[in-house]
Amino acid sequence: PYARVIFLNTSMDASIKPTGWANWDNTTNYKTAYFAEYNSSGAGANPSARVSWSHQLTAAQAQVYSVNAFLNQDGWLNASETFLNWLLQNWP
Q: What is the domain count for the chain?
């Protein structure tokens, strides 16, 4: 698969395995996919136990994937990132 999966500021409960990611029983899947996280919290947040092919982002790296970077990159949407995060979390 070709994919990019990134969790930002995510609360993870104990149901998340320490390894954090799965390769769907295909040991080469990680070669065409990108798995990363930043600032995870909760019982399931365990960066030191993650699979070796996942990434822990720095604040600067995570900013590239923020709500504003995707929805307001060219300035078409005049709103703060806080409001956009609230909107995404509360949308019906």
A: 2
